[in-house]
Amino acid sequence: MNTRANTAVIGAGVIGLLTAWQLRLTGHDVTVIAPSIAQDASWAAAGMLAPISEVQYGQDDLWPIMTASRAEYPQFLATVSRATDVPTGYRENGTLLIAADRSDRDAVAELAVVQREHGMEVTALTSSTLRRREPGLAPGLAKGFDIPSDHQIDPRQLVAATRAALEAELNPQQFPGAGAPVRWLTATVTAVGESPSVDESAVGATPAEHGAPAQRFTVTTDDGAAHPFSSVLLVPGLGYSGIAGLPETCPLDLRPIHGDVLRLQVNPAQLMRGESHILDATVRAKVNGRSVYLVPRADGGLVIGASSREDSLTGTHAGSVQELLTDAVAVLPGVKDMELTEITTRARPGTPDERPFLGELRPGLVVSTGYSRHGILLAPLAARLGAALMKSAPELSAEDQQLLESMRLTRHRD
Which uninterrupted H or E stretch holds 152? Predict the structure, then answer.
């Protein structure tokens, strides 16, 4: 008789998949339920692991969450890499913070002061040093700062690697006590409720007799089927409000924040012999007061983004695409000669204070959502804490408890 927890993970974005992996490592047999795998916000994300670059004014409570998660990435990636040879897409290429002209210089310099006040390593660069570091950057940029510890990961490769690890037959010597390979259920969840009783005839004996976990929850999908589980982890993004039984029990203040992201490919004619890209470091820049980021990929790709809209347009905003290209060219002129391969628009689940919601609705039922623009960066921490909360007696340090308090589900109703 299987005594493992039969656990549903509702949602298959990066955080859902990483949490499913963490649950499998801790002995759960996991079923991931979602209409698709990582096709929403995770598909558009650039994957900057940049707690320093992300710090803005008034985000003191978000900074500890970001830095704690960034510190957990190496160990997480190591466990995935032991389970599969699929590359994770991680690159230690650092970040440059750039002001395009004099009107942006003061804003960037003031941000650097805030970052240093948080104890971050931010070093001013002379114009000549900046040009030597990145010859492809536009001449005459007003100011540059080096943030060597802010790196990147390709979310699409991370999804592929984590999915492979979830499906792999794990070596019990390397992964003692791990659960079975994940089961995928392609469906939309419409309701989650507590089971009125355990159907003992369905399992052949009482749960107590054989130690099998009670099937305490019923997950209903859009085909009308009801699926029993002993525990449920909800990572539904903006879909939380559409799951019957949850918003009434615990309303969460979530709103869609739309972002438009461009993907380009370097033209081979732009490269010197031996070069694979015209940009090495990730660049975050201010151009005419607007933010733009340029994230180089190892395969010669370039991700451009930073548009953020809270309007009624769910499709791509033409003006945002124009501004992203204009600002990117102002920082890296070679962008205009690249191939534009993809424009992606997705909505991210935002919260009033930019901090996510992570907590227990009741024993065995945990919610994890509201990660806004920081979902990729926060994924390892969200996965570990989400999995920990699924235990009847979670093992939490004082630091973990403090982090969870800052992400408490009911904080806006106190």
Answer: strand 151-153
